[in-house]
């Protein structure tokens, strides 16, 4: 199983890079936190970066074994989470088992990721939301390419319709807080 950290978002509402952000009281940034969690479950972790943070993240993980920073690939660059997932799938010639974790879920536990890893073709669901950037499925770069050629960049459609992933329900929505403003994290925990 390959871990994929989605660290290439624009972070427009957040007003600073979520991947490089460090929560108060946290000793590492969100990208490192995600890599550390996935490294416990995966043989290799790919960090999908954007043009602005790729050099910083590459330096950060330069000495980390089994961690590689990748960038979006044309013609599907800058198209959201599917761009990063496509770039990850392009690293392999065969169907690959991917465990996806976006950097904007700093409180997701190892137990949550482990439960997703134990089920094929699934994504996380809480009582109030579906979390498509917390998912586990096997795919190929060709399957992603064919879907992206339809000009549909909605991760939800890819996860539910193409991959036919099922939701795995989690009761504790606190673990799935997705921060969109830096101030929100001060009040949440």
Describe the structure.
Keywords: Cytoplasm, GTP-binding, Magnesium, Metal-binding, Molybdenum cofactor biosynthesis, Nucleotide-binding, Nucleotidyltransferase, Transferase. GO terms for molecular function: nucleotidyltransferase activity. This is Molybdenum cofactor guanylyltransferase. Residues 3-161 form the MobA-like NTP transferase domain. There is one protein chain. By secondary structure, the protein is of the alpha/beta class. It has a single domain (2-188), classed as Spore Coat Polysaccharide Biosynthesis Protein SpsA, Chain A (Alpha-Beta Complex). Helices cover 30% and strands 23% of the residues. It has helices at 30-39, 54-60, 81-89, 110-117, 141-148, 155-162, 182-188; strands at 2-6, 44-49, 67-71, 96-102, 122-126, 129-139, 166-169. A seven-stranded mixed β-sheet has the order 3-2-1-4-6-5-7, with helices on both faces. Residues 184-189 have low confidence and may be disordered.
Task: Supply the key terms.
alpha/beta, Spore Coat Polysaccharide Biosynthesis Protein SpsA, Chain A, 7-stranded mixed sheet, 7 strands, disordered C terminus, Molybde_CF_guanTrfase, molybdenum cofactor biosynthesis
Structural class: alpha/beta
Helical run tally: 7
Residue stretches low in confidence (pLDDT < 50, at least 5 long) are 184-189
SSE run:
EHEHEHEHEEHHEH
| Beta-strand content estimate | 15-25%
> How many strands in all?
7
Secondary structure topology:
Layout: E1 2-6, H1 30-39, E2 44-49, H2 54-60, E3 67-71, H3 81-89, E4 96-102, H4 110-117, E5 122-126, E6 129-139, H5 141-148, H6 155-162, E7 166-169, H7 182-188
Helix pairs in contact: 3-5
InterPro entries: MobA-like_NTP_Trfase, Molybde_CF_guanTrfase, Nucleotide-diphossugar_trans
Keywords: Cytoplasm, GTP-binding, Magnesium, Metal-binding, Molybdenum cofactor biosynthesis, Nucleotide-binding, Nucleotidyltransferase, Transferase
GO molecular function: nucleotidyltransferase activity
């Amino acid at each position: 199983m390959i871990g994929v950290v989605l660290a290439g978002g624009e972070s427009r509402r957040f007003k600073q890079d979520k991947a490089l952000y460090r929560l108060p009281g946290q000793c590492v940034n969100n990208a490192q936190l995600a890599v550390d969690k996935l490294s416990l479950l995966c043989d290799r972790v790919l960090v999908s970066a954007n043009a602005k943070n790729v050099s910083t993240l590459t330096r950060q993980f330069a000495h980390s074994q089994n961690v590689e920073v990748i960038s979006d690939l044309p013609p599907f660059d800058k198209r959201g989470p599917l761009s990063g997932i496509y770039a990850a799938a392009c690293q392999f010639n065969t169907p690959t088992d991917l465990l996806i974790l976006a950097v904007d879920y700093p409180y997701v536990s190892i137990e949550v990721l482990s439960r997703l890893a134990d089920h094929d073709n699934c994504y996380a669901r809480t009582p109030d939301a579906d979390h498509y950037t917390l998912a586990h499925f096997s795919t190929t770069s060709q399957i992603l390419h064919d879907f992206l050629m339809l000009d549909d960049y909605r991760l939800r459609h890819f996860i539910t319709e193409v991959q036919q992933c099922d939701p795995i329900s989690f009761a504790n929505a606190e673990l799935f807080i997705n921060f969109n403003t830096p101030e929100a994290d001060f009040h949440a925990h």
